[in-house]
Amino acid sequence: MRPLFAARRVVEATPQQVAISGGGLGSYNPDPIDGDRNYRKAGSNFRRDVPPWTREKARDYAVTAYRMNPMARAIVDTITSFCVGDSGVAPVVTDPKVREVVEEFWNDPANRLGFIQEISLRSQLLVGEKLYELMVGEDTGVVRFMPIEPAAIKDVLCYRGNPLWPDKVLLPPRGDSDDDSELLVARVRDESSGGLMDGNAMFWAPWRAVDTEYRGMPYIDSILDVLDSYDQVLSNLIDRTAIARYFVVDVEVEGGQEEVDEYIRARGGTHIPPSGSMEVHNSSVKFSPFNVPSGAAEDTQTNGAVLTSVASGSGLARHWLADPEDANRATSLTMAEPVRRRVGGVQRVWLAQMTELCRFAVDRAVAAKRLDPLVTVSDPRTGEEREMPASSTVVVTGPEIAAADSQLAAQVMLNLSTGLKQMVEFQIMSPEAARYAARKAWEDYMGVPYRAELDSPEANPDDVATAVDDAGGGAGDALRKLKLA
């Protein structure tokens, strides 16, 4: 493929790069009539939107790279696996009645949300946007959805021009109508009753450069050209290696051209001796094989530098992309933290989207009178009961990005408990402050929310550890080690 942002190599961005990336508020774009440059249309909305042709070209390149470039597939699949793989994504609901509605929506044979998590996230990573058309039963409030290709979107209209409030999505005409079809983006509208989400579409465009953009770009947009360079260097090495494997023999014959021709006639041609055969000649003939270097050492070093750029741009560590080199376990663990945070950011975006989708299903059930608008729940931290909207009881959780080291977690918790005990005894800290610090440490190192029932001193540590494992925190072993310590 040709590079997406092809331009001469310079320190600063060229006008061509600024124009095709939409980074210059339209001032670098040529006038469509006379080709004049460095102007801005009168009355422009001052948005740094990526031009539609660049956006679609980036999507084409991203999908093609995933299908044909092994490194692109490795990057996208790695991020997808960390975000939704392993134990998977699942809704957590505190109210039993609301849980019943959410599970019905989640496990609906027409939705199968638990089954399609990987392909849904992968699609958003490659095209940068997600558009679901929502189909709601008028009487039952049952919600089903259908994904729509973002390339079909003609425009996105925001409420009162606020890019954070997408309001309508314009699509090509449907059926016999000649007018553009509109999908109303689901959100809480001031004019709606009860503060419930309403609409017939979900639209997400999370990976935008600035918050004044309306549309999204592929997650791997910034490394598409570098991925192409990586593939090009590797392809060149393969081609040269294949050429260098051709066996060439230089035969030197004493005398002139007549002696050379006579030798060829006597030998029967200029063919290379077959493998395992014997060539007989006198001292006036000399055989010398030619060895052509493939340049593998230079290309390997070059590709290593390119791979470093690919890894840093994708948010992954280089040794995670099939190139461990001399990275040991200590180095890998040190480099894992920034990777965990960057991939964790992608996961938080996806889980927030899935939470919004489930909360929409709950709001529609409330509108259909299947649920009460307010439910009574217990605060997981304090155990106090309070009323809250039914949809607010829904949270979608995913697997831990990087499982905490059990031995390290147990040691940290043990040291912290000893320190807190001494600080309370010396009256440096109040028991309430120590209790709050212990709860915070539990959530940080055990990976699951602290619940009020954990305050019971009679709680069996093995039972709590089992509950932690069931919750997907992956810290049950650490808790058992802490008990033994």
In words, what does this structure look like?
This protein has 485 residues and is of the alpha+beta class. The protein is built from 13 helices and 14 strands. The protein has helices at residues 15-21, 52-68, 70-84, 96-106, 117-127, 224-244, 257-267, 296-314, 329-367, 406-425, 431-446, 461-470, 476-484, and strands at residues 90-93, 130-136, 143-147, 155-158, 166-171, 181-184, 187-188, 197-198, 201-204, 248-253, 285-290, 374-378, 385-389, 394-397. The strands form 6 sheets. A 3-stranded antiparallel β-sheet has the order 3-2-9. The radius of gyration is 32 Å and the shape is elongated. It starts with 14 loop residues before the first helix and ends with a helix. The model is unreliable at 327-335, 472-476 and 478-485 (pLDDT under 50).
Notable characteristics:
disordered C terminus, single chain, three-stranded antiparallel beta sheet, 485 residues, 13 helices, 13% strand, alpha+beta
Q: Roughly how many Å apart are the termini?
A: 59 Å
Please list the strands of the largest sheet in the order they lie side by side.
3-2-9
Describe the global form. elongated
Mean pLDDT: 79
What profile does the largest beta sheet have? 3 strands, antiparallel
Number of helices: 13
Which structural class do the helices and strands define?
alpha+beta
Q: Using only CA atoms, what is the Rg? A: 32 Å
Task: Name the helix and strand elements from N-terminus to C-terminus, one letter apiece.
Answer: HHHEHHEEEEEEEEHEHEHHEEEHHHH
Tally of extended strands?
14
Helix content: 40-55%
pLDDT < 50 stretches: 327-335, 472-476, 478-485
Strand content: 5-15%
